[in-house]
Amino acid sequence: MSTTRFLTGITTTGTPHLGNYVGSIRPSVAASRTPGVQSFYFLADYHALIKCEDPARIQRSTLEIAASWLAAGLDPERVTFYRQSDIPETTELTWLLTCVTGKGLLNRAHAYKAAQDKNAAAGREPDDGVTAGLFMYPVLMGADILIFNAHKVPVGRDQIQHIEMARDMAASFNHLYGEHFTLPEAAIDEHVATLPGLDGRKMSKSYDNTIPLFSSREQLRKLIGGILTDSRAPGEPKEVEGSALFQIYQAFATPAETEALRKHYAEGIAWGDAKQMLFERIDRDVAPLRARYEDLIAHPEKIEQTLLAGAERARQIATPFVRTLRAAVGLRSLAQGATAPKAAKASKAALPSFKQYREADGQFYFKFVAADGRLLLQSTGFAAPKDAGQAIARLQQQGEGALSGQLAPVEGVLPQDVAAALQQLAEAANS
Ligand code: TRP
User: Fold this and answer.
1) For 334-429, CATH number?
2) d(C-alpha 349, C-alpha 174), whole Å
C-alpha cells in the first residue's frame, strides 16, 4: 500500500487556545497515528513575518506552538516536525514557482482582495500598506506543500483557495518542465468542531475571546467563569441551542457526558454549576498536557534540538528534490553538455489552458485560464471526468454559448476575452 502524505503548517504569531486545540492540534495528532499516513507538520515562521513585525513575539510563539504540539502527544519520531525557516529549499522553490505563477492568479487571492477592499472603503490607494509578502503568501505556501509532494493538506475552509492555487502552480510547472509535482488536495474534516469563544462568536485571536490552551488551573477556572450565558436563574430550564458553554463542553466530553449535561440544562442547573462542570471536564484532559508543556517550556534547548532533527529529516527529501527541479528548469552545470533549446516549449508557456480537477465534493470541474493566469471560465461540477472533458470539447468547437448552465460566473471577464483565448488556442493547435 502506498502512503498518503499529509502536510500542514501553523503560523507562529500567537499563543495556542482551546479552539486551536480542538480544531487542529487534537485531530492532527490523532491523524498522525493512522497507519499508512506520513505526516509533515511545520511551524510557518516565514509566513508569520507577513503579519508580525515583532521578533520577540515570533520567537516566543514558535516556542509555545512547538511545545503545545509536543505536549499534546505529537511524536517527532513518527511525524516530520520542523520549522519552515530551517528548510531553505522552500524559499528556493518559491522563486521557481513564482516564475510559473500568473500575477492574475495572485490578484484573486481572498486575503489580498480583502486588503484592497478595505483600502477602497477607506478611500485609500488599493495597495496601501500591502507588502509584496502578503501578495506572495500563496506562492510561499505552495512551495511548503509541493516541496514534499504532499497529497492531502488539512486546513480550515479559509485556506481552500490557497490549496487550489498550489495545484495550479504544480500543474503549470508540470506542464512546462515535466511531471515533478503531485497535485495536492485540501482535507477538510467535517467532524471537527469550531469552538465558540467567551462571547459566543468563533473562538479567535482576532475577536479577543479566546481561552489559552495552557494557563494555570486557576486562570482556566476564571476564564471559564467569563463565558457569556443568558440571565436564567438557577432552577429555570436552560437552552442547549446557542449555548457556547454547552458547545465547548461537547467538544471535550463523551456522548454520554454530553447527554448528562443536556439533562442538567433541562432540569435548570445554575450557570455557576455548569461552568464548574465545564472547568473540571476540560481540566481533566488538559492537566496532563499542561505538566508536559511546562516541562518543555522550561527546556527550550530540547525543543530546538527536536526541530533541528526534524529539519534534517525533511531536508533529506527537499535537498535532492530541489536539485532535480533546478536541473529541470535549466539551472544546470555547464560542464554537463548543453542541449539545443526547444523553441516550441517557450511559446507553450504563453497559451491559455484548461485545467481539470476534482473537488472535495467528489465532482469534477474545469477552469479555462488565460496565459497570464487570469481565470476566464469556471465550470460547475460534473459527475465524471469524461463529462468535464466532453464539455471542454464542446466549448472548443462551439464557443462559450454551448455550455449555458454549466459555467459559474467569473467577475470581470468579457465574452470576447473568452472567445479570443479560445481562438488563440485553436490557432496554436493548427500551427
Ligand atoms: N496559511 C496557513 C494558515 O494560516 C498556514 C500555512 C503555511 C500552511 N503554509 C502552509 C498550511 C502549508 C498548510 C500547508 O493557516
Assistant:
1) 3.30.160.160
2) 11
Q: pLDDT tens digits for 121-176?
A: 999 999 999 999 999 999 999 999 999 999 999 998 889 999 999 999 999 999 99
What DSSP state is assigned to residue 22? I
Type of residue numbered 215: S
Model confidence pLDDT, tens digit, residues 397-419: 888 888 888 998 888 888 888 99
Give the pLDDT band of residue 59 (cuts 50, 70, 90): very high
Q: Which residue lies with its CA nearest to atom 4 of ligand 1?
A: 11
Residue 143 backbone dihedrals phi, psi, to 5 degrees: -65, -40
* Centroid of ligand 1 to alpha carbon of 84 (angstroms): 11
CATH classification of 4-192+299-320, choosing from 1.25.10.10, 3.40.50.10490, 3.40.50.620, 3.40.109.10?
3.40.50.620
Q: Is residue 4 part of an annotated ligand binding site? A: no
Test site for ligand 1: of 5, 136, 144, 164, most ligand atoms within 8 A of the Cβ: 144
Q: Which ranges in the chain are annotated with CATH 1.10.240.10?
A: 214-296
Global confidence as pTM: 0.79
- CATH 1.10.240.10 holds for 214-296: yes
Ligand 1 pocket, residue 155 CB under 6 Å:
yes
| Sign for the pseudo-dihedral over CA of 143, 147, 152, 154 | negative
Q: Where are the alpha helices (DSSP H) in 330-384?
A: 343-348
Q: How far is the CA of 138 from the centre of ligand 1 (A)?
A: 9
Which residue's alpha carbon is at the smallest distance from atom 8 of ligand 1? 9
